[in-house]
Amino acid sequence: MENTSKRYWKGVEELRNDATFVKNANSEFANPDLSESSDDLEGLLGGSNTQRRDFLKVMGFGMAAVSLAACETPVHKAIPYINKPEFTFPSISDYYASTFSEGGDYAAILVETREGRPIKIEGNPTSSVSKGGTTPRVQASLLSLYDIDKLKGPQRGGSSIEWAVADREISSQLNSVAGRGGAIRIITSTILSPATKAVIADFVAKYPTTRHITYDANSVFGIVQANQASFGKAVIPSYDFSKAQTIVSVGADFLGSWIAPIEYMGPYAQGRKIGAIGGGKKTMSRHYQFETGLSMTGANADYRTAIKPSQEGLVVAALYNKVAAKLGGTAIGTPSVTVANLDKAATDLANARGKALVVSGSNDPNVQIVVNALNNLLGSYGTTIDINTPVNYRQGNDQQMNAFINEAKAGQIGAALFFASNPVYDHPRGAELAEALPRIALSVSFADRADETASLSKYITPAPHFLESWNDAEPKQGYYSLMQPAITLIFKTRQFQSSLLTWAGKPSDYQTYLKNYWRTTHFPQATGFSSFDAFWVKCLNDGVFEPNAAPAVAGGATFAGNVAQAAAGIAQRYKPTTGMELALYEKNAIGTGAMANNPWLQELPDPVSKACWDNYAAISQKTAGDMKLAQNDLVTVSVNGKSIELPVLIQPGQADNTVSVAIGYGREKAGKSANGVGKNAYPFATITGGYATYSAFDAKVEKASGTHEIAQTQTHDTVMGRKAVLQESILAQYQKSPKAGRYEPKVQTSKGATDPTDITLWNGYGKPNHSWGMVIDLNSCIGCGTCVVACNAENNIQVVGRKEVIRRREMHWMRIDRYYSSDGEAENYSALEVASANPEVTFQPMLCQHCSNAPCETVCPVLATTHSTEGLNQMTYNRCIGTRYCANNCPYKVRRFNWFKYFDNDNFDYHFNNDLGKMVINPDVTVRSRGVIEKCSFCVQRIQESKLTAKKERRRLGADEVQTACAQSCPTTAIVFGDMNNPESTISKVLAVELEGRAFHVLEEINVRPQISYLTKIRNKDEEPKNKETERQEAHA
Amino acid sequence: MLIRSINRVYKMSHLYKLCGTIALFLMLLLANAQVKAQDAAAGGAAAPAAPAGGGGDVEKGKTLFTNNCAQCHAVTSEKVVGPGLKGIKERAPGGDWLHKWIKNSSALIASGDQYANQVFNANGKVQMSSFPSLSDADIDGILAYIDQAGKPAVTADVAGAADTKNAGGTGGSGPTSGGPSELFTLVLVALLVVMLLVLGVLLVIVTILSKAVSPVSIGEGTQIPSTFSQRLKTGLSNTFNNPTLRSIVIWLFLLVAAKETIDGAYGIGIQQGYAPKQPIAYSHKLHAGQYKIDCNYCHTGAQKGKSATIPAANICMNCHGVIKKESPEIQKIYTAIEENRPIEWIRVHNLPDLAYFNHAQHVNVGNVACQTCHGEVEKMEVMEARSSLTMGWCIDCHRRTEVNTKDNAYYDKLVALHRKESKEPLKVANIGGLECSKCHY
């Protein structure tokens, strides 16, 4: 080599020896040409040309930046009151009795406020109407208070104006309309408040051309009219499900959406509680359900039959005929119908005469007249039905509303005022009204947002949320309730009543008006008060005033309806079809869609399908097979030339050749959370003979292109025969042995089979003082999900949205598992996975079981989850490093991981992304950040608070003093929480009996020793060997 | 020979390393000990006041006095808002009169009682609050307490007394330092000195040995350095070039730097000593120290709930409605009230959101003195965060503090259970006071 004279060059540059070559000749690793990248940092971080040193540089900078940022401690302000109210202390909750009232739905509530902001709604146990119960919507209504999409003040044509301007202009226009005799219409949903009706009357007195039109988005006008025809009373009676031994419901989802579930859930569950939790009784009601889609009510039925909407009237008529044959009534001439369980239902009804109840969800007065006749035959009036104490939950008049739309189209309306109503969206003829609305000279909406109707109205004079308002309510004749504000007005809103009073030229102070109304109307009914003020304060404190609450003897009634005529109507309308039929239904969370912009409700899964953030076309397995449709396939559903595209959800229990679609979705102008979620199914409803009809006998379902994934929180439908998870039996077996249906696993040891609890690796933890535990009665749990929303509110649980739910990343600490039964044989696991065509359903609330031998605790590498001396499995967020070993090792899958920072994150633009929405945060509970596991804490903040109260008062903790949010909110008291060390507590008393009876632990064989016991599900079914083939045929018939 | 000398040097380097490590270890220990001493001091102060002796009603009277009377009255003859109560029993017309007066002074004045009117007029016609809820026994208790507290032997400053008593047990005053930790530091320093001496001796030996070796190894022509300066120079350069020594220095530096970084990181978010300037130059020294106004008078939430609460302006007005109205600082309160704009105080004690702390649990149930955590507020001109509020600080106190179970039925079962197992007093840690979900949820 040394001698060679040859020259090698690496390229022509070297040969030429040009400047750049010389410059770079000695650098081994050429720097990337940064001028090519417009953003250096981006190139460094994101590009593939990242180099080690650059990486270190950036990392070093990042670390320095982070530590610098961390060093700079922000200055926190502490701002006291200027003038502190005497009995209010920061950090101590105040409770105000008030009233939830939304579109005719009612609940007496207690509002928990902290530093002047409501943070939780509880049921008011003083009320004998709602009896302390709540529903998901009642619980979630709190979040609607802090909805950022609400209007901040009055608007004219989309731009803000002052209230004074609005008042001046609207008053003068009203005067001119009234002056020329133009029609003024006030369109509302059901108004429960007598005082508000008095205000409307005052308004009418000032503007005599005014008429008040009431309609309900999910109307039961047919019942009202049928009662008018049957008893001469245009009312909805009170139903008492607790007194009924046999309940037959034809399409009435009375636990979820029919009239007033809040009033029916508790008594219904009362009738179905057995054993220690039911006061020792060993009998329960029997519930038959005939319906199209599998509703929550149907899921709770002992016998459920899937029928097509076109069979509904016929089923009622056939039931009438069969009962009449047994009890000696006259048969009516309707075509016969063959559906399963009809004879059985008729026999049970006839046997339970005087303790029977038949309800129907139909809005067809003919059907309801036959139902009335049937109830009359069964002696239900005066026992299970009290028509002399009517309820006011649904006052809508379909005919008047229909007439209004006709008038509007004809240009005969001078002024239209919309309060608590959104007919453009939720009326079957909404589209027609939308066209006519701009032609009405004066249109005013009192909506809190520029919704579908309000945005077409000339003025929006927003009314505040019910938690900011004064009002009263009369949900049931003679039962009164007061609404008082729990927060000062958030925005420049004004109550509807004040606006009407202002425009009617009266003093606009509605609080004074209300007080005076009560002084003249209710004070004379009260006894034992020295002054009106004393009475008023007492009513405000209690929240309710029930002068007639003494146990009234339910009034009987004389039936005077024309059954034959009704039967003829039924025979004419209900005819067998061969094609697809459509049934519209209301979900218990979203309801009619008025509260759709509520992320808690959107994320609450449907009790049965477990789907959230969407509505869908529910079809049966067989129909899906026939049409070659799979889950999530898009289909076009069309009725009367109107069509929408929806994803398919295969719903076990759905009647074949039917499709069920939920109303309440497809909002366009409700706000960020609701807009574009699902499709609006209201246009599918029709006005038939003056009554809104929520079904169609001639629907078309066609496969469309593409798919749309439905977010479901549970995708495994059956327990696949795992008796360790779900234990159930039938009533007859239970009456023989309280341990019926119990599965008691044994473990084989060298000494033979032993209980799994007899062998253990662990030493266990002492629970010397308290041992917090829970009993969940599977018989009482109806699956409504109120506990889930209550838990969301209490524990600051984040909303994650549809996409994250699809990725199985929902954050709910409490979930309600729904299990279908399967026809599969025990050996065939893939067949076991498939739910029956018409399955039995069991709801199982599932939350952290607070195992005494917790598998999660042993695997945590940083001791972020540990055990307490009170039986709690503790989760310490600030210690968690997010390995997720615990979630992996949890046999119940109740631990949730924060995949993202869900607050202050534009990708999760729900209430935690704005300051107003954050006002709902419970200040006692940490808001978890990204990268940590969270789970049910047994509401440890409530335990600690109650303990502290006891300590401050230097006494022992009361027996049932601590209540978790879920137990407190449960409308059927299916959840019993308490101290198992205190023999006086309800839980101890229940377990004392049921430990040798219905109580079981889920997955007992793994010996994790949960603090939660479940009570076996007992169905009131007849004891007969199941012949699955015949049952299946019956179901398909 | 060469190999032997290298070997020896190698052994020497082992020795160096060992010495270095020991020295470093000691330094680190010392640094740690200082931190711990601080914690211990805080912990020492955190121990509760031992129950004072005396009759039961005196004890109760003390509590009642603190909660109801101390805002306006001192047990000495000093006038606060109302007159000093020293010798009140002798002064008043009779025990019955005092009962009537305390329960409803305005009724007594209205009834035309001569002494009542005399007292009322003598004190600027400021009406005393009525205490109808106090029973006769309660009032006797209060009077008994005043009697006892007025005697010179007992210090009026209740909290101060508790502190001194407590600190007496550990030998020294609370905030400076605890006795055992001081001793510990001393021992460490002594050890360090000894170790340094040993190091020096070893170095001397090494030098001598290397000298003994050097003639052989440099015998091959290298000049022996003649002058002292040259020798020093060579010695120094040898020292600098010595790889062992260099690595020791580098390691030392790295370790100290790492230690500092970690300590610094632990300090993030700790605001011990934080004393921001407040919008109103309010002096606790004046109010709580000089005028001995009870903490609960203004911080009304401390007995009731999570937040001790910063007083609303209307509480200030209880006194400043008449007192020192002209002061520019107090005028700020007037302005705030007039403009209906609350005063934005700067929060001094900032606990992170992840920790739940409830004042009522500690102050009301636990009977912990405010000073235990907040330091001698009554001596602070500007409010300052005296405690670190770290979890170690909380836990430390929970380990040391006895549960205040006296007359509290809630704890009966726990006390009974504890007595069965142990003769030690019932500490907070014994009843789950170290469990995560007591503070984190």
UniProtKB/TrEMBL annotation, chain A:
Q: Which InterPro entries match?
A: 4Fe4S_Fe-S-bd, Asp_de-COase-like_dom_sf, TAT_var_transloc_signal_dom
PROSITE patterns (alphabetical): 4FE4S_FER_2
What region holds the 4Fe-4S ferredoxin-type domain? Answer: 772-802, 839-870, 871-900
The residues forming the signal peptide are: none
Q: What is this protein called in UniProt? A: TAT-variant-translocated molybdopterin oxidoreductase
TrEMBL record, chain B:
Q: Which residues form a coiled coil?
A: none
- Domain Cytochrome c spans what residues? 56-150
Q: Name one Pfam family in it.
A: Cytochrom_C
Q: Which InterPro entries match?
A: Cyt_c-like_dom, Cyt_c-like_dom_sf, Multihaem_cyt_sf
Enumerate the SUPFAM superfamilies for this protein: Cytochrome c (SSF46626), Multiheme cytochromes (SSF48695)
Xref: Gene3D superfamilies: Cytochrome c-like domain, Cytochrome C3
Signal sequence, renumbered to the chain: 1-33
Q: Which UniProt keywords apply?
A: Heme, Iron, Membrane, Metal-binding, Signal, Transmembrane, Transmembrane helix
Span-the-membrane segments of this chain are: 183-209
Give this protein's Gene Ontology molecular function annotations. Answer: electron transfer activity; heme binding; metal ion binding
What name does the UniProt record give this protein? C-type cytochrome
Q: Which species is this record about?
A: Spirosoma validum
User: In the record, what lineage is assigned to the organism producing the protein?
Assistant: Bacteria, Pseudomonadati, Bacteroidota, Cytophagia, Cytophagales
